[in-house]
Design brief:
- By secondary structure, this protein is mainly beta.
- It has a single domain, classed as Porin (Beta Barrel).
- 5% of the residues lie in helices and 57% in strands.
- The chain has three helices and 20 strands.
- The strands form two sheets. Strands 1-2-3-5-6-7-8-11-12-16-17-18-19-20 form a 14-stranded antiparallel β-barrel.
- A hairpin with a 2-residue loop joins β19 and β20.
- The longest helix has 11 residues.
- The chain is globular.
- The protein starts with a helix and ends with a strand.
Length: 406
């Protein structure tokens, strides 16, 4: 196998969750409900507005009615257009973004006056990016697709009238498919890499009602270790069984909700994500455990997300929302940015509303536009193919949610 093919495999099998421009910086999906999108997800560890708190802070289930189900869906349209050149020629690749549909579902149930249980199903990482197959960076990546499914059973305990604690287990499936050209010629063969695995982790939360107007939430989601088993096709001999380990990062959130009056709520949030674990990519042959080629240096850094928002209750049926957020990129330096993860910091501007259909049911809607900073790729050299240029990117998100108490 050529050194070029080794590098493609390294980038492929270990790139679970890193395919394309996901909506939280790095490769995480924060779109875990529609009720929070209108606030740019400010204060989600403190809001406990519905059963989606299972993901953001399981302790929040103690704020819910006896039984509740939530179903949400998101249309996510990233746009990413490259302009630049490489030493092998080719076009700019077109719009590398693609329309994605991301679903969520949750159910929460009160066992006793002080104990709630629930389960959530969501997609914490994913999306897709795809370039024209003859573009200038075709040897570094053509198509990258990632799917995850996360099952999150949880429990919450009301310890006192002002303090609740919660915990949950995450069982996560990840599947990745990535392609690239095996050589510089536009007609060179297509290298296809596939891998999948199950991993597990946990989440913890605490909710403190400081006073009638102020609620504070603290939440933590653990790392999930994935050992991806897969193969690479398009080289000789083919397919080649391979395995790689990747750690999906942990995160911690501190959120505040403040009720200014009976109509207006103010929200704030800061979230840390431990991206610094992503320092290199290394792929091993399943046959003998030896390393394919050389490890790819990434050197990501931990990052922060800051958000503020507000809810205004217009009347008994309608509440409107707004929010802004700033999401730092974990890419520590332009030289480490790749065509599969052309990530950069982004600013969210979001609006939304809730309409109460009845005492038991409500509909939530949200829309957000993400302004993404230009992402530079300065003379990235992989196997002698040098790519130089920048990305102009943005993201639009439209979400809807049905909440029903029964």
């Amino acid at each position: 196998m050529t050194s070029f093919a080794f590098n493609r495999l390294t980038l492929g099998l270990t790139l679970a969750g890193m395919a394309g421009l996901t909506q939280a910086a790095g490769f995480a999906l924060i779109e875990q409900n529609a009720s929070g999108l209108g606030n740019a997800y400010a204060g989600q560890a403190a809001v406990a507005a519905d059963a989606s708190t299972i993901f953001f802070n399981p302790a929040g289930m103690t704020m819910l009615p006896d039984r509740q189900v939530v179903m949400a869906g998101h249309l996510i349209k990233p746009q990413a257009e490259f302009s630049g050149s490489s030493n092998i020629g080719g076009g700019d690749g077109g719009d590398a973004g693609g329309l994605a549909i991301v679903p969520n579902a949750y159910i929460a149930y009160r066992l006793t006056p002080d104990i709630h249980v629930g389960v959530g199903m969501n997609a914490p990482f994913g999306l897709k990016t795809e370039y024209d197959s003859t573009w200038a960076g075709r040897t570094q990546g053509v198509k990258s697709e990632m799917k995850t499914i996360n099952l999150n059973p949880s429990i919450a305990l009301k310890v006192s009238p002002t303090l609740s604690l919660g915990a949950g287990l995450s069982v996560q499936y990840a599947e990745a498919t990535l392609t690239s050209r095996t050589g510089a010629a536009p007609t060179a063969g297509l290298l296809t890499v596939k891998g999948d695995d199950f991993g597990w982790g946990f989440n913890l939360g605490a909710l403190w009602q400081l006073n009638p107007a102020t609620r504070i939430g603290l939440a933590y989601r653990s790392e999930v270790d994935q050992k991806l088993d897969g193969n690479v096709a398009g080289v000789s001999p083919s397919p080649i069984p391979a395995t790689a380990s990747v750690t999906l990062p942990d995160s911690a959130s501190l959120s505040v909700l403040y009720k200014l009056n009976n109509k207006l709520e103010l929200l704030a949030d800061i979230t840390w994500t431990g991206w610094s674990d992503f320092d290199e990519l290394r792929v091993l042959r399943k046959s003998d455990g030896s390393t394919f080629g050389t490890a790819t240096e990434e050197n990501w850094k931990d990052s922060y997300r800051y958000s503020v928002g507000a809810n205004y209750r217009m009347n008994d049926k309608l509440t409107v929302r707004g929010g802004v957020a700033y999401d730092e990129t974990p890419v520590s330096n332009d030289i480490y940015r790749t065509v599969r993860i052309p990530d950069q910091s982004r600013t969210w501007l979001a609006v939304g509303a809730q309409y109460r259909l009845s005492d038991k049911s409500s509909l939530d809607f949200g829309y957000a536009h993400l302004f993404v900073k230009d992402a530079r790729i300065p003379n990235r050299n992989e196997s002698g193919v040098v790519l130089n240029g920048k990305y102009e990117a943005s993201v639009d998100i439209l979400s809807a949610q049905l909440t029903h108490n029964f």
